[in-house]
Inverse folding.
């Protein structure tokens, strides 16, 4: 290291973190009493400030696990007036400690965006390895160009490329960006395919798709022979669909296939992939700017949401210009945060935006538009890797994420709020500092960070695997032992899934998929709804069941109405109760949709009834898609609706007990949720759509079901269970 040059560089950088990091690197040099050489190359005032900085660093920085307290910054302001004038000194927000991350490894990283390890410099190696090994793993931080540049380069060699994305917004936005870069219209050379939206043509050579779309294509076609190259992007996310695709890739490379496979990951947790595939590994580095990470000193962890909001407000009011990205756990928290911030901040100086998977594409795209105001973007973990928003200077990381966990013992899916992993924390921090120095404010302590898991469990180990197993069997793999996966589901989950599929007649007594099972697998729904729809066609009530299924598939149909607005909330409750039906919640959904249809899908109708216009239109799209797939004959027999659902949801039956209910299959004690129109009613048997856990287990979307209907369901399994 040229220490003289680096010391001068201290005064040419605009980020205090780099300065302190540099002092740290040349500590041995600075602790010497001989400053003669140093005095010759810097002015007297700067030299004095540097010596003072060294003393403060020596007294406060070393021996404290590389953390700087707020006091150090306060001391810098007093003796180092020149430093304050020379730098944009960004004081830590109150109640935080600062951790300096040394991302600046060498001058090449600082000076050159397309450095030695850029995508362009690695492409010859990647294509060579693909020729030789069939499958290659590429690791590169978000923003290095994996998703956009690599597929474009591969088009020079391959005629048909498909690139999977875990989210529809990523597939669409990346396809649009790549098409623009290549001077093509979306749907010509470059296109995308997601649910309800296929923008491809016979000209398309590079197609971005969701992993679910590609799996569905395989179920219908049986193979991937139409493609020369398969790219699985964001492989580190380890969704169930990604894990199934990885298992398929394992089979393909063992066969005499011409298909070449490229796995791409944004995290360094790549050893599992390398071991599983025995494949070569290419690492891509790219320019990174100085990044400061702030940890909370102390806080009440139960108040993490309000600490997050408070931090956003403090950043906006005290920090220099730059957009803010805020990571929250889900749609509900995002909407709550939006409401608080819009009433707390001056909207003439900032623009508050939301982004989550359930939003419409038009609404999502607004976060990518430049604005003169400071943007404050409220996001789920969708912005960790799948979506890149430029010009983010500040990240506020709540440190939490929602994850579904399936309990085999209780027979229910539990949506839990968990601490994120260290890998996720790094990904979130990396969203700042892409175009200049950045800061991340972490709503957790350093100790909490150190206690985080390196990575969270993959989805296949935490959720219901019924759909997963049916998909694998529909691909011709009846013996699950012959299908290798990076992580196999736990045996209890597999047994639960096989029990349901056998009772549903989707698999036979030896576990082979049946014709009914194949038909269920082709539908873009979970097996429970798939079987219900198939049965509804036979019973002559498809129209009604398809509407209910569509309404159940979307997020909540009502808009959020806060209880503190007493007048509006009372009006909302009155409107909501007007739809109540003694038969249950499925018929409430059916009545609402049919009334909206009668009003010719009026926006005014949705507004008056507190309905989410976006979600209602989403339900209509799903219903229309299902109608197209079944070629239904407009049959509507409401007396058969619950009978159809009892065939798909025969495991979702609860029986009355003294002060609540218990589920028949798992004997789980439960209660009807307060949102149900059957709340506080006492029916002998209830068919429910889902069971959720808060302080107790609650049944949601409940419906009255008779013993006569239950006896007709799937070989009288309920009689056998008595």
């Amino acid at each position: 290291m040229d220490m003289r040059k680096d010391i001068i560089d201290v005064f040419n950088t605009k980020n205090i973190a780099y300065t302190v990091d540099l002092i740290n690197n040349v500590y041995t040099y600075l602790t010497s009493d001989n400053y003669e050489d140093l005095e010759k190359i810097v002015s007297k005032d700067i030299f004095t400030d540097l010596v003072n900085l060294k003393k403060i660093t020596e007294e406060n920085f070393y021996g404290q696990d590389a953390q700087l307290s707020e006091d150090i910054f306060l001391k810098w302001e007093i003796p180092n007036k020149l430093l304050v004038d020379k730098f944009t000194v960004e004081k830590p927000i109150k109640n935080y400690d600062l951790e300096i991350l040394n991302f600046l490894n060498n001058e090449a990283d600082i000076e050159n965006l397309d450095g030695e390890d850029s995508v362009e410099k690695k492409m010859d190696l990647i294509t060579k390895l693909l020729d030789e090994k069939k499958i290659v793993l590429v690791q590169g931080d978000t923003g290095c160009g994996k998703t956009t540049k690599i597929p474009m380069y591969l088009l020079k060699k391959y005629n048909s490329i498909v690139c999977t994305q875990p989210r529809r917004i990523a597939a669409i936005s990346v396809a649009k960006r790549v098409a623009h870069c290549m001077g093509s219209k979306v749907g010509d050379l470059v296109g995308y395919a997601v649910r309800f939206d296929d923008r491809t043509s016979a000209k398309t050579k590079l197609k971005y798709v969701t992993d679910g779309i590609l799996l569905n294509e395989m179920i219908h076609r049986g193979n991937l022979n139409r493609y020369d190259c398969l790219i699985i992007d964001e492989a580190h996310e380890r969704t169930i669909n990604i894990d199934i695709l990885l298992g398929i890739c394992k089979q393909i490379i063992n066969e005499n296939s011409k298909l070449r496979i490229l796995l791409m990951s944004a995290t360094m947790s790549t050893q599992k992939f390398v071991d599983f595939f025995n494949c070569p590994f290419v690492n891509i580095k790219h320019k990174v700017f100085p990044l400061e990470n702030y940890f909370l000193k102390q806080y009440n962890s139960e108040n993490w949401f309000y600490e997050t909001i408070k931090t956003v407000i403090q950043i906006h009011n005290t920090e220099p210009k730059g957009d803010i990205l805020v990571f929250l756990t889900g749609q509900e928290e995002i909407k709550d945060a939006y409401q608080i911030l819009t009433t707390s901040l001056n909207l003439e100086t900032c623009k508050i935006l939301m982004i989550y998977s359930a939003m419409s594409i038009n609404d999502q795209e607004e976060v990518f538009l430049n604005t003169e105001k400071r943007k404050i973007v409220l996001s789920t973990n969708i912005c960790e890797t799948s979506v890149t928003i430029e010009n983010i200077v500040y990240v506020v990381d709540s440190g939490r994420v929602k994850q579904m966990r399936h309990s085999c013992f209780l027979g229910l899916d539990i949506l839990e709020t968990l601490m994120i992993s260290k890998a996720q924390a790094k990904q979130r921090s990396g969203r700042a500092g892409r175009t200049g120095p950045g800061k991340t404010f972490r709503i957790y302590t350093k100790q909490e960070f150190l206690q985080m898991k390196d990575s969270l469990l993959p989805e296949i180990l935490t959720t219901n695997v019924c759909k997963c197993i049916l998909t694998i069997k529909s691909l011709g793999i009846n013996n699950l032992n012959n299908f290798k996966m990076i992580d196999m589901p736990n045996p209890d989950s597999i047994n639960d899934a096989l029990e349901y599929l056998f009772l549903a007649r989707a698999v036979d007594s030896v576990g082979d998929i049946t014709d009914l099972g194949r038909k269920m697998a082709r539908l873009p729904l979970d097996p429970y709804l798939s079987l219900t729809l198939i049965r509804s066609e036979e019973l002559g009530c498809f129209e009604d069941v398809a509407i209910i299924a569509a309404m159940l598939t979307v997020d909540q149909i009502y808009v959020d109405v806060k209880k503190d607005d007493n007048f509006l909330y009372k009006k909302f409750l009155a409107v909501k109760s007007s739809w109540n039906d003694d038969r249950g919640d499925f018929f409430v959904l059916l009545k609402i949709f049919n009334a909206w249809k009668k009003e010719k899908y009026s926006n005014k109708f949705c507004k008056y009834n507190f309905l989410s216009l976006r979600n209602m239109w989403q339900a209509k799209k799903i219903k229309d898609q299902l109608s197209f797939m079944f070629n239904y004959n407009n049959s509507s027999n409401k007396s058969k609706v619950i009978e159809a659902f009892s065939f798909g949801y025969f495991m979702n039956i609860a029986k009355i007990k003294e002060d609540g209910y218990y589920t028949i299959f798992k004997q789980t004690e439960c209660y009807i949720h307060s949102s149900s129109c059957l709340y506080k009613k006492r029916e002998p048997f209830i068919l429910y759509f889902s069971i959720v856990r808060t302080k107790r287990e609650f049944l949601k979307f409940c419906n009255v079901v008779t013993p006569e209907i239950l006896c007709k369901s799937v070989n009288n399994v309920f009689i056998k269970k008595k």
